[in-house]
Fold this protein.
Amino acid sequence: MWITFSLDTVRTPTFVALGNFDGVHRGHRKVIAPILSDSIATVVTFHPHPQEFFTGQPRQLLTPLDEKVEILRSLGVEQLVLLPFDQILANMPPVEFVETILLKQLQARKISVGQDFCFGSRRSGTTEDLRTIAAKHGVEVQVIPLHTQNDERISSSAIRQALQDGDLSTANDLLGRPYSLIGNVVHGQQLGRTIGFPTANLQVPLEKFLPRQGVYSVRVYCPTLPAHEGSLPGVMNIGNRPTVDGLKQTIEVHLLDWSGNLYDQTLTVSLEKFLRPEQKFPSLDALKTQIQLDCEMARSLLAVTPSA
Protein backbone atom coordinates (compact mmCIF):
# COMPACT_ATOMS: atom_id res chain seq x y z
CA MET A 1 0.00 0.00 0.00
CA TRP A 2 1.29 3.44 -0.95
CA ILE A 3 1.34 5.87 1.99
CA THR A 4 1.90 9.58 1.53
CA PHE A 5 1.63 12.79 3.55
CA SER A 6 1.89 14.92 0.41
CA LEU A 7 -0.57 15.55 -2.39
CA ASP A 8 2.43 15.94 -4.68
CA THR A 9 3.17 12.21 -4.50
CA VAL A 10 -0.30 10.69 -4.72
CA ARG A 11 -1.06 8.03 -7.28
CA THR A 12 -4.03 8.93 -9.48
CA PRO A 13 -6.79 8.68 -10.56
CA THR A 14 -8.49 7.54 -7.37
CA PHE A 15 -11.62 6.16 -5.81
CA VAL A 16 -11.68 7.95 -2.44
CA ALA A 17 -13.10 7.08 0.99
CA LEU A 18 -13.00 10.14 3.26
CA GLY A 19 -12.95 10.18 7.06
CA ASN A 20 -10.85 9.83 10.22
CA PHE A 21 -11.36 6.06 10.44
CA ASP A 22 -9.96 5.70 13.97
CA GLY A 23 -10.53 2.06 14.84
CA VAL A 24 -11.49 1.07 11.27
CA HIS A 25 -14.66 -0.36 12.79
CA ARG A 26 -17.62 -2.01 11.07
CA GLY A 27 -19.15 1.33 10.12
CA HIS A 28 -15.88 2.55 8.62
CA ARG A 29 -15.57 -0.60 6.54
CA LYS A 30 -18.99 0.11 5.04
CA VAL A 31 -17.64 3.48 3.86
CA ILE A 32 -14.46 1.92 2.47
CA ALA A 33 -16.15 -1.00 0.67
CA PRO A 34 -17.53 0.98 -2.35
CA ILE A 35 -14.05 2.18 -3.43
CA LEU A 36 -12.42 -1.25 -3.51
CA SER A 37 -12.66 -1.63 -7.28
CA ASP A 38 -11.25 0.02 -10.39
CA SER A 39 -8.94 3.08 -10.20
CA ILE A 40 -6.71 3.29 -7.10
CA ALA A 41 -8.64 2.50 -3.90
CA THR A 42 -7.61 5.39 -1.66
CA VAL A 43 -8.42 6.25 1.92
CA VAL A 44 -7.99 9.95 2.70
CA THR A 45 -7.74 10.94 6.33
CA PHE A 46 -6.20 13.72 8.39
CA HIS A 47 -2.97 13.90 10.35
CA PRO A 48 -2.96 14.92 13.09
CA HIS A 49 -6.55 14.22 14.07
CA PRO A 50 -8.50 17.51 13.75
CA GLN A 51 -9.46 17.43 17.45
CA GLU A 52 -5.77 17.21 18.35
CA PHE A 53 -5.04 20.23 16.15
CA PHE A 54 -7.80 22.39 17.64
CA THR A 55 -7.27 21.43 21.30
CA GLY A 56 -3.48 21.21 21.25
CA GLN A 57 -3.77 18.02 23.31
CA PRO A 58 -2.48 14.59 22.19
CA ARG A 59 -5.34 12.29 21.27
CA GLN A 60 -5.40 8.65 22.28
CA LEU A 61 -6.14 6.50 19.23
CA LEU A 62 -7.86 3.14 18.85
CA THR A 63 -5.58 2.51 15.89
CA PRO A 64 -2.25 4.37 15.81
CA LEU A 65 -0.89 4.86 12.30
CA ASP A 66 1.06 1.59 11.95
CA GLU A 67 -1.93 -0.43 13.12
CA LYS A 68 -4.34 1.46 10.87
CA VAL A 69 -2.06 0.85 7.89
CA GLU A 70 -2.08 -2.91 8.44
CA ILE A 71 -5.87 -3.07 8.80
CA LEU A 72 -6.46 -0.96 5.68
CA ARG A 73 -3.98 -3.06 3.72
CA SER A 74 -5.83 -6.22 4.76
CA LEU A 75 -9.07 -4.72 3.41
CA GLY A 76 -7.54 -4.14 -0.01
CA VAL A 77 -6.89 -0.41 0.22
CA GLU A 78 -4.10 0.52 -2.21
CA GLN A 79 -3.26 4.03 -1.04
CA LEU A 80 -3.45 5.99 2.21
CA VAL A 81 -3.27 9.78 1.98
CA LEU A 82 -2.67 11.56 5.29
CA LEU A 83 -3.63 15.18 4.71
CA PRO A 84 -1.60 17.44 7.01
CA PHE A 85 -4.27 19.13 9.14
CA ASP A 86 -3.03 22.67 9.63
CA GLN A 87 -4.56 26.14 9.76
CA ILE A 88 -4.72 26.37 5.97
CA LEU A 89 -6.78 23.18 5.74
CA ALA A 90 -8.89 24.20 8.75
CA ASN A 91 -9.81 27.49 7.04
CA MET A 92 -10.40 26.05 3.57
CA PRO A 93 -13.90 26.66 2.19
CA PRO A 94 -15.86 23.49 1.33
CA VAL A 95 -15.90 24.24 -2.41
CA GLU A 96 -12.12 24.69 -2.50
CA PHE A 97 -11.55 21.48 -0.56
CA VAL A 98 -13.61 19.46 -3.04
CA GLU A 99 -12.48 21.10 -6.26
CA THR A 100 -8.79 21.60 -5.43
CA ILE A 101 -7.91 18.62 -3.24
CA LEU A 102 -10.40 15.90 -4.15
CA LEU A 103 -10.99 16.58 -7.82
CA LYS A 104 -7.83 18.32 -9.08
CA GLN A 105 -5.04 16.86 -6.96
CA LEU A 106 -6.46 13.42 -6.11
CA GLN A 107 -8.35 13.15 -9.43
CA ALA A 108 -11.18 11.42 -7.62
CA ARG A 109 -13.53 9.49 -9.89
CA LYS A 110 -15.75 8.30 -7.06
CA ILE A 111 -16.09 9.46 -3.44
CA SER A 112 -17.50 7.56 -0.46
CA VAL A 113 -18.33 9.16 2.90
CA GLY A 114 -20.38 8.41 5.98
CA GLN A 115 -23.72 10.13 6.45
CA ASP A 116 -22.35 12.38 9.20
CA PHE A 117 -19.24 13.52 7.31
CA CYS A 118 -18.56 17.28 7.48
CA PHE A 119 -15.70 19.18 5.89
CA GLY A 120 -14.26 22.60 5.16
CA SER A 121 -13.98 25.67 7.36
CA ARG A 122 -15.91 25.26 10.63
CA ARG A 123 -17.16 21.89 9.34
CA SER A 124 -19.66 23.86 7.28
CA GLY A 125 -19.69 21.45 4.32
CA THR A 126 -22.30 18.65 4.42
CA THR A 127 -22.67 15.46 2.42
CA GLU A 128 -25.28 17.19 0.26
CA ASP A 129 -22.81 20.00 -0.44
CA LEU A 130 -20.24 17.38 -1.40
CA ARG A 131 -22.69 15.71 -3.77
CA THR A 132 -23.68 19.00 -5.37
CA ILE A 133 -20.12 20.23 -5.93
CA ALA A 134 -18.85 16.88 -7.21
CA ALA A 135 -21.86 16.39 -9.52
CA LYS A 136 -20.91 19.53 -11.43
CA HIS A 137 -17.74 17.69 -12.43
CA GLY A 138 -19.44 14.37 -13.16
CA VAL A 139 -18.11 12.67 -10.02
CA GLU A 140 -20.32 10.28 -8.07
CA VAL A 141 -20.57 10.63 -4.29
CA GLN A 142 -21.87 7.68 -2.31
CA VAL A 143 -23.19 8.55 1.15
CA ILE A 144 -23.24 5.55 3.46
CA PRO A 145 -26.02 5.47 6.10
CA LEU A 146 -24.91 5.32 9.71
CA HIS A 147 -24.24 1.72 10.70
CA THR A 148 -26.06 0.68 13.85
CA GLN A 149 -26.21 -2.21 16.28
CA ASN A 150 -29.17 -2.66 18.60
CA ASP A 151 -30.44 0.72 17.36
CA GLU A 152 -27.25 2.45 18.51
CA ARG A 153 -24.74 4.05 16.16
CA ILE A 154 -21.44 2.23 15.69
CA SER A 155 -18.80 4.85 16.42
CA SER A 156 -15.27 5.25 17.72
CA SER A 157 -16.71 7.06 20.75
CA ALA A 158 -18.99 4.12 21.59
CA ILE A 159 -16.04 1.73 21.32
CA ARG A 160 -13.93 3.91 23.61
CA GLN A 161 -16.71 3.99 26.19
CA ALA A 162 -17.14 0.22 26.08
CA LEU A 163 -13.39 -0.26 26.56
CA GLN A 164 -13.38 2.15 29.49
CA ASP A 165 -16.21 0.13 31.04
CA GLY A 166 -14.39 -3.18 30.51
CA ASP A 167 -17.23 -4.23 28.19
CA LEU A 168 -15.15 -6.12 25.65
CA SER A 169 -18.12 -7.95 24.20
CA THR A 170 -19.64 -4.67 23.01
CA ALA A 171 -16.32 -3.14 21.95
CA ASN A 172 -15.31 -6.18 19.91
CA ASP A 173 -18.76 -6.46 18.31
CA LEU A 174 -18.63 -2.81 17.22
CA LEU A 175 -15.11 -3.21 15.89
CA GLY A 176 -15.87 -6.47 14.11
CA ARG A 177 -12.69 -7.97 15.61
CA PRO A 178 -11.02 -8.21 19.03
CA TYR A 179 -9.46 -5.00 20.31
CA SER A 180 -5.69 -5.47 20.21
CA LEU A 181 -2.58 -4.01 21.78
CA ILE A 182 0.54 -4.20 19.61
CA GLY A 183 3.95 -3.50 21.05
CA ASN A 184 7.48 -4.61 21.79
CA VAL A 185 8.51 -6.74 24.75
CA VAL A 186 10.86 -4.78 27.02
CA HIS A 187 12.72 -5.56 30.22
CA GLY A 188 10.75 -5.08 33.45
CA GLN A 189 11.39 -5.77 37.12
CA GLN A 190 10.81 -9.52 36.60
CA LEU A 191 8.66 -9.73 39.72
CA GLY A 192 6.35 -12.23 38.04
CA ARG A 193 9.14 -14.79 37.88
CA THR A 194 9.55 -14.70 41.65
CA ILE A 195 5.97 -15.94 42.17
CA GLY A 196 5.91 -18.43 39.31
CA PHE A 197 4.12 -16.32 36.70
CA PRO A 198 6.70 -14.78 34.33
CA THR A 199 5.30 -11.97 32.21
CA ALA A 200 6.20 -10.16 29.02
CA ASN A 201 6.19 -6.40 29.56
CA LEU A 202 4.56 -4.81 26.55
CA GLN A 203 5.48 -1.32 25.38
CA VAL A 204 2.78 0.09 23.11
CA PRO A 205 2.74 3.42 21.22
CA LEU A 206 2.17 6.38 23.55
CA GLU A 207 -0.91 7.39 21.57
CA LYS A 208 -2.58 3.97 21.89
CA PHE A 209 -5.91 4.08 23.72
CA LEU A 210 -5.79 1.70 26.69
CA PRO A 211 -8.90 0.01 28.10
CA ARG A 212 -9.95 -0.18 31.74
CA GLN A 213 -7.21 -1.17 34.16
CA GLY A 214 -7.49 -4.76 35.26
CA VAL A 215 -7.00 -8.37 34.21
CA TYR A 216 -7.99 -9.81 30.82
CA SER A 217 -8.00 -13.16 29.07
CA VAL A 218 -6.13 -12.70 25.80
CA ARG A 219 -4.73 -14.39 22.73
CA VAL A 220 -1.16 -13.53 21.84
CA TYR A 221 0.26 -13.54 18.32
CA CYS A 222 3.95 -13.48 17.52
CA PRO A 223 5.53 -14.41 14.17
CA THR A 224 8.42 -16.16 15.91
CA LEU A 225 6.14 -18.56 17.78
CA PRO A 226 5.64 -21.52 15.42
CA ALA A 227 3.40 -23.45 17.81
CA HIS A 228 -0.35 -22.91 17.49
CA GLU A 229 0.26 -20.98 14.25
CA GLY A 230 1.77 -18.12 16.25
CA SER A 231 -1.18 -17.78 18.67
CA LEU A 232 -1.02 -18.55 22.37
CA PRO A 233 -3.60 -18.05 25.17
CA GLY A 234 -2.71 -15.82 28.06
CA VAL A 235 -3.68 -13.47 30.87
CA MET A 236 -2.87 -9.75 30.75
CA ASN A 237 -2.79 -7.11 33.47
CA ILE A 238 -2.98 -3.38 32.83
CA GLY A 239 -2.27 -1.31 35.90
CA ASN A 240 0.11 0.07 38.49
CA ARG A 241 0.68 -3.18 40.46
CA PRO A 242 -0.48 -1.79 43.84
CA THR A 243 0.46 -4.96 45.74
CA VAL A 244 4.15 -4.19 45.15
CA ASP A 245 3.63 -0.40 45.44
CA GLY A 246 4.07 0.19 41.73
CA LEU A 247 3.91 3.80 40.60
CA LYS A 248 3.96 3.41 36.82
CA GLN A 249 1.29 1.80 34.67
CA THR A 250 2.48 -1.36 32.94
CA ILE A 251 1.04 -3.90 30.53
CA GLU A 252 2.10 -7.42 31.49
CA VAL A 253 1.19 -10.62 29.63
CA HIS A 254 1.54 -14.13 31.07
CA LEU A 255 1.38 -16.90 28.47
CA LEU A 256 -0.37 -20.08 29.60
CA ASP A 257 1.78 -23.24 29.46
CA TRP A 258 4.61 -21.59 27.57
CA SER A 259 7.99 -20.23 28.57
CA GLY A 260 10.79 -18.68 26.57
CA ASN A 261 12.55 -15.46 25.68
CA LEU A 262 10.32 -12.86 24.04
CA TYR A 263 12.50 -9.79 24.61
CA ASP A 264 12.50 -7.38 21.66
CA GLN A 265 9.75 -9.36 19.94
CA THR A 266 6.60 -7.66 18.65
CA LEU A 267 3.42 -9.10 20.14
CA THR A 268 -0.18 -8.60 19.09
CA VAL A 269 -2.40 -9.14 22.12
CA SER A 270 -6.09 -9.60 21.31
CA LEU A 271 -8.35 -8.85 24.25
CA GLU A 272 -11.05 -11.48 24.69
CA LYS A 273 -12.65 -10.94 28.13
CA PHE A 274 -12.33 -8.58 31.09
CA LEU A 275 -11.84 -10.77 34.17
CA ARG A 276 -11.59 -8.35 37.09
CA PRO A 277 -10.41 -4.87 38.13
CA GLU A 278 -6.90 -4.40 39.44
CA GLN A 279 -6.72 -4.62 43.22
CA LYS A 280 -4.19 -4.52 46.06
CA PHE A 281 -3.58 -7.81 47.86
CA PRO A 282 -2.31 -8.15 51.45
CA SER A 283 0.66 -10.30 50.38
CA LEU A 284 2.49 -11.79 47.41
CA ASP A 285 1.04 -15.19 48.35
CA ALA A 286 -2.48 -13.77 48.09
CA LEU A 287 -1.59 -12.23 44.72
CA LYS A 288 -0.18 -15.55 43.53
CA THR A 289 -3.37 -17.35 44.53
CA GLN A 290 -5.50 -14.84 42.61
CA ILE A 291 -3.31 -15.05 39.50
CA GLN A 292 -3.76 -18.82 39.56
CA LEU A 293 -7.53 -18.31 39.65
CA ASP A 294 -7.24 -15.79 36.79
CA CYS A 295 -5.33 -18.34 34.72
CA GLU A 296 -7.95 -21.03 35.39
CA MET A 297 -10.71 -18.64 34.37
CA ALA A 298 -8.84 -17.75 31.18
CA ARG A 299 -8.35 -21.44 30.38
CA SER A 300 -12.07 -21.98 30.66
CA LEU A 301 -13.01 -18.95 28.56
CA LEU A 302 -10.41 -19.69 25.90
CA ALA A 303 -11.10 -23.44 25.94
CA VAL A 304 -7.50 -24.29 26.79
CA THR A 305 -6.57 -27.75 28.03
CA PRO A 306 -3.82 -27.64 30.67
CA SER A 307 -0.53 -29.14 29.55
CA ALA A 308 0.67 -32.30 31.22
In short: The chain has a mean pLDDT of 91. The radius of gyration is 22 Å. The chain has ten helices and 14 strands.
